[in-house]
Amino acid sequence: MTYSEKLRDPRWQKKRLQIMERDGFACRVCSATTKPLNVHHLAYFPRTDPWDYPSQMLITLCDDDHKAEEEGKSAADAMLIEALRSSGAMNLDLDRIAQIVRELGTGPGALAIIQRALDEAWTEAKR
């Protein structure tokens, strides 16, 4: 089954509707409710069907914000790697960072933990 066929599959359509309903049928970036909406995968996992992703890995985005997210992904990824490398990070460091993030799991709780740790590290570095 091709990816576009999977997006027409009733299992995806059901999951998509659940995510949009959870998000109040509004874009999570700009809160638009009148623009066409998409359900965006925050990350892609090999050999995982669209409907098998955990709900916390899916968000509702309007067409404009979905396009911007997809187009900006590689640039943001590159900026993050460049910033880590310029601070002296080596492959082992990047592997450890990825491992920690995976162990935290997915969703807003994990992101909040990461943001809090970064804020604490920044405060400490400025002292």
Low-confidence runs of at least 5 consecutive residues? none
The SS-based structural class is: mainly alpha
Number of domains: 2
What's the main sheet like?
2 strands, antiparallel
User: Quick one: how many beta strands?
Assistant: 2
H/E topology pattern: HHEEHHH
Ends distance: 56 Å
Key structural traits:
127 residues, mainly alpha, 2 domains, 5 helices, globular
Structural overview:
- The relative contact order is 0.10.
- The chain is globular.
- With 127 residues, it is mainly alpha-helical.
- Strands 1-2 form a two-stranded antiparallel sheet.
- The protein has five helices and two strands.
- The N and C termini lie far apart (56 Å).
- The chain folds into two domains: 1-73, no CATH class; 90-127.
